[in-house]
Design brief:
It comes from Kribbella ginsengisoli. Its main location: membrane. This protein is an all-alpha fold and 395 residues long. The chain folds into two domains: 195 residues, Up-down Bundle (Growth Hormone, Chain: A), CATH 1.20.1250.20; 196 residues, Growth Hormone, Chain: A (Up-down Bundle), CATH 1.20.1250.20. Helix content is 78%, strand content 0%. It has 15 helices and no strands. The longest helix has 59 residues. The chain is globular. The two termini are 35 Å apart.
C-alpha cells in the first residue's frame, strides 16, 4: 500500500521536481531587486519620480509578452533550455542595470529584464506536469510554491544586508542567483517534451477560458492581499514591520502543511473539490482580516488564507496541465498565467478604491465573499470543463 502521508512521501517525487524546486529557490533568494529599481533610477541615475514611474511602466508592459514567449519556447525549444534562456536573459538585464551610468543606458536594460522576466515560469510548471502523475501534481506545485515563499522572506533579509553598501550590488547578486539556477537546471534537469507538431489554438479551448476566468478572480484577490494588507495594517495602527512577520508566518505555514497536501483525505478529493475547499479557506482568512485589529489576529488570519492559497495554486495548475495536450502544456500554462498579469494591473486600483470607499472591513469582507462565491461555482465549473470535448485539431 502506498503511503500518502508524511514528509517521506515527498521523497518519491521525481528527482526533476526536487532539482527544479532547489534551483528556483536559489533563484528566488536573489530576486529582491524590483522594489529597489525605482530607488536606483532616481538616486543613482538621477531620474525624476515621473521618469522612474514611466520606466517601471515600461518594465511592466515588457513582462506581458514574456510569459507568452516562455510558453511557446517551452513547447518548441524544450523545457530545460527555455528555463536556461530566461534566467540568462534576466542575468544580462540585471548586470546591465548595475553597470548603467545614465538613465538612457538603464532603459533598454529594464526592457531586456522585463522581456526575460517570466520566460521561465511556463516551462517550470510544464516540466512538473511532464514528470509527475496527476495525483502527485498538486503536491509538487505546492512544494514549489512553498519553497518560493520561504525564499522570498529570506531574500528580503539579504536585501536589507546588501543594501547597506550599494544598491547596485543587489542587481549583481540577483544576476548571480539567476546564473547559478541556470547552471543547475542545464546540468540536472531532463530536456522534457519539445517541438510541438503544430500550432495549438489555445485561445479556442473553452475549457481553458472558463478555468482562466475563475483563476483571474483568484489572482486579483491574491494581489489585493499584496497591495491592501500593508495599508490595512497602517489603518489599524499596527507597525509596518508586521507585514514582514505576516509574510514569514505565511511562508512557514505553507511549508508546515506540505505533508497534509499528500495526505490520503486531501488526495481523495478531485481538483474541483479541492478548489472549493481552498476558496472557503481563502474566504475565511480574508474575512478574518477585516475584523483583525492586532498583529496576532492578522497572523492567525494569514495562516488560514495561506493554506487556501497553497491549495488553490497547486490544484489550479493541475487542472490546466490536465486540460493541455502534452505537446502544448507550455502554451496552456503560459496563457493561464496571464491572469496574474491582469490581476497585477487591476488589483491596486480595486484595492485602493475599496479601501477609500468602504474601509478595511468592507474591503476584506467583500474579498472574502468573492472567494466564497468562487467556492460555490466550482461544481458548475467542473461540469462545464468535463462536458466540453478537447479542442479538435489540437492533439
Amino acid at each position: 500500500m502506498t503511503n500518502h502521508t508524511g514528509f517521506a512521501s515527498h521523497q518519491r517525487l521525481p528527482t526533476a521536481v526536487w532539482v527544479l524546486v532547489i534551483a528556483r529557490g536559489v533563484n528566488r533568494l536573489g530576486a529582491f531587486t524590483l522594489p529597489f529599481l525605482a530607488v536606483v533610477l532616481t538616486v543613482e541615475l538621477g531620474a525624476s519620480v515621473a521618469q522612474a514611474g514611466l520606466v517601471l511602466t515600461v518594465f511592466g508592459l515588457a513582462t506581458l509578452p514574456s510569459r507568452v514567449f516562455g510558453g511557446h519556447l517551452a513547447d518548441r525549444l524544450g523545457r530545460r533550455w527555455t528555463i536556461v534562456a530566461g534566467l540568462v536573459g534576466c542575468a544580462v538585464g540585471q548586470v546591465w542595470i548595475a553597470a548603467s551610468g545614465s538613465l538612457w543606458s538603464a532603459v533598454p536594460a529594464v526592457v531586456v529584464l522585463g522581456l526575460a522576466f517570466e520566460i521561465y515560469e511556463p516551462p517550470s510548471q510544464a516540466i512538473i506536469a511532464d514528470v509527475t502523475e496527476p495525483v502527485d501534481r498538486p503536491a509538487a506545485y505546492g512544494l514549489l510554491g512553498a519553497v518560493m515563499a520561504v525564499a522570498a522572506v529570506v531574500a528580503g533579509l539579504l536585501a536589507a544586508w546588501l543594501g547597506q553598501w550599494d544598491l547596485r550590488w543587489l542587481f549583481v547578486a540577483d544576476a548571480a542567483s539567476c546564473l547559478a539556477c541556470a547552471v543547475l537546471v542545464a546540468v540536472a534537469l531532463p530536456g522534457g517534451v519539445q517541438v510541438a507538431p503544430a500550432a495549438a489554438a489555445v485561445w479556442r479551448d473553452r475549457r481553458l477560458l472558463w478555468v482562466m476566468g475563475s483563476g483571474t478572480v483568484f489572482a486579483v484577490l491574491a494581489m489585493v492581499l499584496v497591495f491592501g494588507l500593508p495599508l490595512t495594517l497602517l489603518d489599524r495602527g499596527v507597525s509596518a514591520s508586521g507585514v514582514g512577520i505576516i509574510l514569514a508566518v505565511s511562508a512557514i505555514a505553507q511549508v508546515a502543511v506540505q505533508p497534509v497536501l499528500r495526505g490520503s483525505r486531501l488526495q481523495a478529493l478531485d481538483n474541483f473539490q479541492a478548489l472549493t475547499l481552498g476558496y472557503v479557506l481563502l474566504g475565511a482568512g480574508l474575512i478574518a482580516n477585516g475584523f483583525s485589529h492586532s498583529l496576532p489576529a492578522f497572523v492567525a488570519a494569514a495562516v488560514v488564507w495561506s493554506l487556501g492559497d497553497l491549495i488553490l495554486i497547486g490544484r489550479a495548475l493541475s487542472v490546466v496541465a490536465e486540460l493541455a495536450p502534452e505537446h502544448a502544456r507550455g502554451r496552456y500554462l503560459a496563457t493561464y498565467g496571464l491572469s496574474w498579469g491582469v490581476a497585477t494591473a487591476v488589483a491596486p486600483l480595486i484595492g485602493t478604491q475599496l479601501l477609500s470607499v468602504v474601509g478595511p472591513t468592507g474591503l476584506w469582507i467583500g474579498c472574502g465573499v468573492a472567494a466564497c462565491i468562487l467556492a460555490t461555482l466550482q461544481p458548475k465549473l467542473r461540469r462545464l470543463v468535463r462536458s466540453q470535448p478537447p479542442l479538435l485539431g489540437i492533439e
